[in-house]
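Residues and backbone
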Amino acid sequence: MCPNLKNMTLVGCKVTGSVVLTICHPRLSNLTIDKGDFIARTVNVVTPQLKNLSIVRYIGRFRVSAPELASLILRGPCPSRFSSTDGFPCLEKALIFIHGIEDLSSLYTSHIINLLEQLHYVKFLSLSMAIIQVLNLSVEIISRQPTPLANLESLTLLPKLNFGYNCKHKRVIVSTELK
């Protein structure tokens, strides 16, 4: 073990032979997982001093125990499950840029709602328009529930990615009611 390890970046890692990858370190404060090949696996993150967590281009399940987490970035396809053991009581900022769910939006509604429920304490939140589209299609379901974002001070909506090919700009109509 590396007792002084504070920063860890995993890029393009492939895990074989196990259905669970556990990242456990008492002093880790910054963790980035980018383009991991962990499909159909669960990633457990147990890091009591983790301040910044960035998960980019990953499909899978995450279980996170990081009571000191202040910043969360999720970019890429929708994670099949994202859960916190402690509710992220110190979470200040979150950027959730999920794409590729527009055409299958009804399938992802519960995943998106579950994800937002994990961000109960966040103060500054940035969401992709794809998330707004999914929520807008499910307005009947979510309008009967109290907001999971009780401490939210600022909400930023992020435009869709434009890769320069076969891009069709769609107009998104959003419900006028905010709770």
Observations:
- Helices lie at 105-117, 129-137, 139-142.
